[in-house]
Amino acid sequence: MTDTSTATAASVPLAPRALPLLGHALPLLRDPLAFIMSLSGYREMVRVRLGPSTAMMICDPDLTRQVFLNDRVFDKGGPIYDRIREVIGDGLSTCPYPLHRRQRRLCQPSFHPTRLAGYGAVFARAAEVKAASWRDGDVLDITQEMMTLTTRATMETMFSGSLPAETMRRALADTSTIVTAFFRRMMTPALLRRVPTPRKRQYDQARDRLSATIAEIIAERRADPTDHADLLSTLVGAVDEESQDGQKQLSDTELADEALTFFLGGMETTAITLAWAMHLLATNPDVQHRLRAETHQVLAGGKADPAQLPSLDLAARVVTETLRLYPPAWMMTRAVRQDTELGGVRLKGGSTIVLSPYLLHRRPDLYPEPDRFDPDRWVGGQPDRAAYIPFGAGARKCIGDQFALTEAILALTAIVARWELTPVGDQPFRPKVETSLSSRGLRLRISERRTSGTGDAEAHAATPRSTSAQPSTPAQPSTPPGAGGCPVKH
Q: What are the helix (H) ranges across 398-480?
C-alpha cells in the first residue's frame, strides 16, 4: 500500500494458501497457531478467508487497541461470537453494543472489590481441598483436576454451594463437549453445521442440559428472596437506575445468559490457565523452586489467604507470563457496524475483523525471546496496554479479571506449597486449539514437598532469574499487570 489515505480493503495483501470455497479453513483447522504466526510478518493487517467470507486480520498492537476502544463501530460479532451465542445468548461477553452498557452496569456490582475477599476465601478453600486429595507419586490429568477445582469454586461463588456430585459430573462433561465443539463449528459452513451428525446431536444435548440446569437454579432463586451473599443474588438484586426504557433489572432470560456466561468462563478458562501455569512450572524447575520458597515465606506453614495476595509477587508474575504465552482467547472477531477507516484502510460496514492476542504476545519486536517462559520480564514494569491483551481492552474488557486473578494466584500458591510438579515423559506438550488454547490431556506427576531450611530458599525466591526456553510454550495482585483466565470471553 503506497497511498494509505485512499487504500481499500482489496489492496491489503491476502494471506497465502487460500483455497476456493474453503479459504484458509484447512490450515486453520490443521494447525491454527502455525497459520496465525505465519502472519506475523504483516506488520499492520492482512486479509484471511474464513470459508467464502473475507476478514481483516489485524497484526499491529496500536490498531488492535483502536478496535477494542471503539466498540460502537467494531462490535462483538463474527464467527466466534455467533457460535458462542448459541450457548449463552446475549450475555455480557457476546451482546451487541446497544445492549452492553446496561448489562455492564447491572453486572458490575457482582465484581465489586469488596466482594473479592469472600470469593477469594472460597477459591483458597477449594484449592486446599483439591491439593489434599492427591497422593505422593500420583500422575494426574491436570486439566481435569483444575476443571473440578474451578467448577466447585465457581458453583460456590455463584450459587452458595456446590451441585450434587452427579450434576457436577454432568456439568463438567457438558461444558467440555460444548467448548470442544466451538472452534470446529466456527470453521464449518452454515449448511454443514445443520447436518444432524452424532457429534452435532451430542453438542445439542450438552447445550440443552447445561441450560436446563442453570434455568432450574435461577427459578429456585427467584422463588427465594433471601440474599445468599453470592454472585447470583447480586445479579438478581441489581438495579440500573440509568435505564431509559424502564427495564431496571435483568429479566429471567438475561439472568440465565449472564449465569451461563460466568459459569462457563469461570470454570473453563481459569482451569486452563492454571493447568498451563503448572505445566510451565514443571518444565522450569528453577522458577518452581523460587515460587515454593515464596509460598514458604508468605504462608509460613499456613494456608493461602486473600489477605496475602499483595505478597505473592512471583505467583502473580507466573500467571501473567502464562497468559502471555497461552492467552485463553487466542483469537477474537469483531463485526464492523458502519463504513469506517482503520490504519488508512477503508472498511465497509458488515465486514469482519480478526484479532489475535497469541500473535501479538509472541512478536519478537514486542517481547524479546518471545517463546521463552520468563516471569521476570514483568519485574518492575507494567505490560504495554496495546501489546498485552489477554482480556481485551476498553469498555468490553473482561469484567471478571480481578475475580479470576484472585482464583488463579491462590490456587497456584496452595498447590505449589504442598506439591512438587514434574513432567510425564520428555515429549513437548502442544495446545489443543479450540476457542481457548486447551490443555486437555496434559499429565503431570506430583511429589510431596520435602521440608528444608528456609534461609537459602528465601534468598533464592528474592532473586529474579532467567528461565529455560520452552519452544511452544504470561504483578502486583492489587493492580496486576495481568490476571487469571477471564470468566468472560472478549
A: 401-418, 455-462
CATH 1.10.630.10 domain span(s) along the chain: 70-329+390-448
Q: Which CATH architecture has domain 70-329+390-448?
A: Orthogonal Bundle (1.10)
Instruction: Say what the pTM is.
Output: 0.86
The tens place of each residue's pLDDT in the chain, 490 residues long, gives 444 456 899 999 999 988 888 888 888 888 999 999 999 888 899 999 977 789 999 999 999 999 999 999 999 988 778 878 888 889 999 999 999 999 999 999 888 888 888 888 889 999 999 999 999 999 999 999 998 899 888 888 888 765 677 777 787 788 778 877 877 777 676 777 888 888 889 989 998 998 888 888 888 888 877 778 788 888 988 999 887 777 889 998 999 999 888 888 778 889 999 999 999 999 999 999 999 999 999 999 889 889 999 999 999 999 999 999 999 889 999 999 999 999 999 999 999 999 999 999 999 999 999 999 999 999 987 778 889 999 899 999 989 888 888 899 999 999 999 999 999 988 889 998 877 888 989 999 999 977 554 444 444 444 565 444 444 433 333 334 444 446 455 5
Q: What's the CATH code, domain 1-69+330-374?
A: 3.30.43.20
Question: What residue spans in the chain does CATH classification 3.30.43.20 cover?
Answer: 1-69+330-374
DSSP per residue, 206-250:
HHHHHHHHHHHHHHHHHH-----SSHHHHHHH---TT-SSS--S-
Residue 63 makes CB contacts below 8 A (sequence gap 6+) with 44, 45, 342, 343
